[in-house]
Write a structure and sequence with these properties.
heterodimer; A: about 550 residues; alpha+beta; Dipeptide-binding Protein, domain 3; 3 domains; 5-stranded mixed beta sheet; globular; B: about 325 residues; mainly alpha; MetI-like fold; Oligopeptide transport system permease protein OppB (chain B); MetI-like_sf (chain B); BPD_transp_1_N (chain B); membrane (chain B); MetI-like (chain B)
Chain lengths: ~550, ~325
């Protein structure tokens, strides 16, 4: 006789005991997984903050290829395992602690990682967040059919094992210290929603994301704005505001006008332009501050061009740059002199680098000594190479265009010809930039990923895209000593030991001058008076990195 | 009528085919491409970019990409935006309402005011009003729209505080009144140029009709000037305007780039500019085909309407 499937049970008393024991252990290990403590939602969010952005956020699955402006939304809707605080120190977020070699989270050889998670986190739909979600997220990134953002670091992860709902381990193919910082920009996505999707690239989730963050998705009006609402079940501090609105205003002047008229409460990317700073700081009822950014504005030299192969040329050009005048006269004093690619706020910033000095006579002397002799047209030449080059940047950026004209004149005074050849952004930053087709270019570039000092992608020989490399070393800089240091730095977990390594990297780069720094970015951030809890963070790409703490003064 | 329609439709299909081929080739030949937006991101390696290129199908030969796109289009699949992954028709649909609202209201203003100014100017030729209208039209046509927009924002929003500085509505207040309040300035600014165009066309069309024999006959019959104007002149002068309206209709649906940017209006014009900036090929091609179809369709409709109204024209 066949068993009746509805009544038959293979369940034994022993199984029941086993299950009860497992449940008991789970409750002990993760008491909050089975229920949310009542005291968590004490905040009573009120009010609305409208954040102005000059580009439209369009990618809401944080793991998919996206640009800076999307971060504003990701940081509010999602959480990563760790968070980079304004001092550049990693803090636990979804993880209960930051793993180190000292606390045993990372093995001595840097290959075995163990992550412990918080047990009181829930997705916006009420499901508990567990180690399975972390495993799913990390595996999705390296899924070849998924249009993932970067895979660097993630591609080294092997054998992810879920030990318990709040703990998981994995093995790294090779020791890679920056991965901790990479994880601070890797937002976790829900397995229970995305695993059901046939194609994660076109999932409904991507248009209405579900995260664990302080704010929940509300609605998007394409081309205009998107709205988030407070998540009262948020595990962290906050949120204190009821609605968070990201408003898209493409024109920078209009963005500023709407800040002035009170339509927007806070100006995020691309911030207030330098030419409006003087007026903005006098606006009644507005707080306008200068905040350091992570990018450095530089003249990138394509070192494969014969003009730039001679270090004397690079030194002479650097000496001929009146950077103080450029910041004061063109950028209205907004911007900070720097000698390195490392942001001043970084623990790894080397303050002992020699300061550049504007001196045209010295510049001429350097070129004379190196054998660059002025020709009949006044332009120097050596071994048949004329000291002439084109400079490119995005067209329509009036401040950069003024810098170009300024430099064109001063360079001419030392017998160097610089022509200007600008192009639209979609052309400039395409193959022209990525495949090093430029002579020289002005670009504002960030070297770090979530404040980790590793600059391999920009400075290592293996990162030269034009030579089949894997990174964005578009200036084609190559120095074996820097290569070795960068490799060592990526394998070293101890911050002090790393500091020594990156101090030396900065020294060599300052000497080699593969690019000529103009200034470190300073962002002009404006907000309405009464908006409290705002904290700038040069280690993230958005001013809205921690909107959970924002509140209106009552 | 049927022969005329079939003939025009077949011509239109060939035209759309040509537009699509030229659009696709030109767009794809531009240096840069959709991945250029990641150029400055240090974390995007060349490997990552190559992987994305393959996943988006951008590494295939151009003709394969075109045939694939065209075949899908014929089946009603306009593709997905590279930027936000949404279907192209959805992306267009989301911006269409905003554009219809702005362009619709400004067109109504332009036609009503422009027609009136044109007729009044023609019937009062060389009067102070006529001179003023002529000079006004010249000014409106010569000064760029964004200037009017910025001056409007400065005067009415920042100085007087009467009208909002932009946006389609105040976030959190979706009332009709709020929409109307936001609509006033952009639709008037946008209407300025069209008022100028309409008034000039209407003026010359009215003058044409006034000099016709049948108007003289009507006068000779002793009809009042007002009756002549309303019954004989306006109707006939409006006929060529239908073609003009037909030609302008597509722009009502494709948006006004500058005005939408100045007033942060989430319409089609801005969508086009944004999509071009990101080299979002599927959306740019979608918009191109959308406006090409509109132009063809509107011209056809205008021809038919003129033929129906004017018995002198036969569609055969």
């Amino acid at each position: 006789m066949a068993k009746d499937p509805t009544t038959a049970s293979t369940y034994s008393r022993r199984d029941a005991l086993r299950l009860m024991a497992a449940g008991g252990i789970a409750c002990f290990a993760a008491p909050n997984l089975l229920g949310k403590p009542a005291f968590a939602d004490t905040a009573n969010p009120t009010g609305r903050v409208v954040v102005g952005l000059s580009q439209e956020p369009t990618v809401f699955n944080p793991l998919m290829a996206h640009i800076e402006v999307d971060d504003a939304v990701h940081f509010s809707v999602f959480d990563a395992l760790f968070r980079m605080d304004p001092k550049g120190v990693l803090q636990p977020n979804l993880a209960a602690e930051v793993p180190t070699q000292k606390n045993g989270g990372i093995s001595e050889d840097g290959l075995n990682w163990r992550i412990r998670l918080r047990d009181d986190v829930r997705w916006h739909d009420g499901e508990p967040f567990t180690a399975e979600d972390v495993k799913f997220t990390l595996e999705l990134i390296t899924n070849p059919n998924f249009r993932a953002w970067r895979t660097g670091g993630h591609s080294l992860v092997r054998d992810i094992t879920v030990v318990s709902p709040t703990e998981l381990t994995w093995r790294m193919e090779e020791a890679f210290a920056p991965y901790l910082s990479f994880l601070a920009e890797t937002f976790m996505v829900p397995k229970h929603i995305l695993e059901k999707e046939a194609d994660p690239n076109t999932a409904a989730f991507n248009q209405a994301p579900v995260g664990t963050g302080a704010f929940k998705w509300a609605q998007r009006v394409a081309g205009d704005h998107l709205e988030l609402v407070a998540n009262p079940q948020y595990f962290g501090d906050g949120p204190y505001i009821e609605r968070l609105v990201f408003k898209y205003i493409p024109d920078m002047t209009v963005l500023y006008t709407q800040f002035k008229s009170g339509d927007i409460d806070l100006v995020d990317q691309a911030y207030i332009t330098a030419d409006h700073y003087e007026e903005a700081r006098t606006l009644p009822g507005r707080v306008v501050t200068l905040e350091p950014g992570a990018s450095v504005e530089s003249i990138f030299l394509n070192l494969e061009k014969p003009q730039f192969k001679d270090p004397a040329v690079r030194q002479a050009l650097y000496a001929a740059m009146d950077r103080g005048a450029i910041i004061d006269a063109i950028y209205y004093g907004v911007g900070t002199l720097t000698e390195t690619f490392m942001p001043k706020e970084s623990y790894y910033h080397n303050p002992n680098l020699p300061a550049q000095e504007f001196n045209l006579d010295r510049a001429r002397q350097i070129l004379d000594d190196a054998g660059w002799v002025p020709g009949p047209d006044g332009i120097r030449a050596k071994d048949g190479v004329r000291l002439s080059f084109a400079n490119s940047t995005t067209s329509g950026n009036n401040l950069r265009e003024q810098v170009q004209q300024f430099l064109q004149q001063t360079f001419a005074e030392i017998g160097v010809e610089m022509t200007i050849s600008n192009m639209p952004a979609a052309v400039m930053w395409g193959e022209f930039w990525l495949k090093s087709q430029f002579d020289s270019a002005i670009a504002g570039v960030t070297y770090l990923i979530a404040a980790d000092p590793d600059a391999t992608n920009r400075l290592h020989t293996s990162a030269i895209g034009a030579k089949g490399g894997k990174g964005s070393n578009t200036g084609q800089y190559s120095n074996p000593e820097v290569d070795a240091l960068l490799e060592k730095g990526a394998r070293t977990f101890d911050p002090e030991a790393r500091r020594e390594i990156y101090y030396r990297v900065q020294e060599i780069v300052r000497e080699d001058l593969p690019f000529l720094p103009l200034f470190a970015y300073t962002n002009v951030i404006g907000r309405k008076e009464g908006l409290e809890g705002f904290e700038p963070n040069a280690n993230t790409r958005t001013a809205s990195w921690h909107a959970a703490a924002w509140r209106w003064q009552s | 009528m049927r022969g005329f329609l079939l003939n025009r439709l077949s011509q239109s299909l060939v035209l759309l085919l040509i537009v699509s081929v030229i659009g696709f080739v030109v767009l794809n030949l531009l240096p840069g491409g959709p991945l250029a937006q990641f150029g400055l991101d240090p974390s995007m390696t060349q490997d990552d970019l190559n992987r994305l290129k393959e996943q988006l199908g951008l590494n295939r030969p151009l003709w394969v990409q075109y045939l694939d796109w065209a075949w899908r289009l014929v089946q009603g699949d306009w593709g997905h935006s590279f930027r936000d992954g949404a279907p192209v028709l959805d992306v267009i649909g989301r911006h269409l309402v905003a554009t219809l609202l702005l362009m619709g209201s400004s067109t109504v203003i332009a036609i009503a005011v422009g027609t009136w100014i044109g007729i009044h100017g023609a019937t009062h030729r060389y009067s102070a009003f006529d001179y003023l209208a002529t000079v006004g039209a010249m000014v409106a046509l010569s000064i760029p729209t964004f200037w009017f927009g910025l001056v409007g924002i400065y005067v009415f929003s920042l100085r007087l505080g009467w009208l909002p500085a932009g946006n389609m509505y105040t976030i959190g207040d979706g009332s009709v009144l709020n929409y109307l309040h936001h609509l006033i300035m952009p639709s008037i600014v946008l209407a300025l140029v069209h008022v100028a165009i309409w008034s000039r066309y209407m003026r010359s069309a009215t003058l044409d009709v006034i000099s016709q024999e049948f108007v003289k006959t009507a006068r000779a019959k002793g009809l009042s000037e007002r009756r002549i104007l309303m019954k004989h002149v306006v109707g006939n002068a409006l006929l060529p305007m239908i073609t003009l309206a037909g030609m302008q209709l597509p722009s009502v649906l494709t948006g006004a780039l500058v005005t939408e940017t100045v007033f942060t209006w989430p319409g089609m014009g801005r969508l086009f500019l944004d999509s071009l900036g990101y080299s979002d090929y599927p959306v740019v091609m979608g918009l191109l085909m959308f406006s090409a179809i509109l132009v063809v369709l509107c011209n056809l409709i205008a021809d038919i309407v003129v033929a129906i109204i004017d018995p002198r024209i036969r569609l055969s």
